[in-house]
Amino acid sequence: MVEVEIQMVEGIQGISIVGLPDASVKESKDRVLGTLGSYHCDLPEKRFIVNLSPAEQRKNSPFFDLAMAIGIMKELDYFPHEIPETAAFLGVLSLNGAVKPVEGMLPAIMAARNKGIKVLYLPHAADLPFRRLDGIELRFVRNLDEVIQSLSGQEDLFTAQGSWPPVASFDEPYTIYSQRTLNISSAINMQRRS
C-alpha cells in the first residue's frame, strides 16, 4: 500500500512530490494548494515535501489528493486529535474542495482492507458495487470540509460497516488485481515524518 509522508522544511513556499510520481500525481500539488487556499488555510513560507512510498514503485493515479491535503493540515497541527494510523484517505480534490472519485477505486479499497486499514474516507459519489465491507469502516464524504469536521469530532458522516452485499462475492475476483495495484496506487495511509 502506498503511504503519503509529509514534512515541512525551509524553502520557497510550495509542494515537492517524490517517489516516482507520474504527471497526474505531480499535478496533485496544484489541486491541493488551490483547495487549501479556497478553505483559507494559511500556509507558512515553507516547503512541503511529499514522499510516496515505497519509493521504487511508480505512482500513476490522482488518488493522493485528499491524503496530501489532510497530511499538510496535520503537519500544521490543524486537528485537535491525532489521526489514527489505521485511517486512510482516497479521492481527487476539485479546487472548491469537492472530493471526487477516480478510476480504480474498487481494487484500492480492497487492498486497503487487506493491509489492515480500519477507517477509509472516500468520495460519496463513488460508483461501487457495495456500500459496506467486512473489516473496514467506509466513511463517505462530499468535500474536504466534511473530512475536517469528522477528524475534529464535529460531524457524523454516513458510514457503512458490515458485509452487505456478502464480502465473499468481491474478495476472489479482486485479490490478484488489488495486489497488482499496490505497484500503482492504493488507498492512502499517512505517516508523519519525524
Mean pLDDT: 81
Number of continuous helical runs: 6
* Overall 3D form: globular
N-to-C series of helices and strands:
EEHHEHEEEHEEHEHE
Note the gap between the termini.
20 Å
Name the poorly predicted regions: 161-187
Given helix and strand content, the structural type is alpha/beta
The CATH architecture can be given as 2-Layer Sandwich
User: What is the alpha-carbon Rg in Å?
Assistant: 16 Å
The strand order across the widest sheet is: 2-3-1-10-4-7-8-9
Beta-strand content estimate: 15-25%
Number of domain modules? 1
The level-1 CATH class: Alpha Beta
Give the % helix. Answer: 25-40%
CATH fold category name? Ribosomal Protein S5, domain 2
What is the makeup of the main sheet? 8 strands, mixed
The tally of beta strands, per DSSP, is 10
InterPro entries: Ribosomal_Su5_D2-typ_SF, Ribsml_uS5_D2-typ_fold_subgr
Pfam families: ChlI (PF13541)
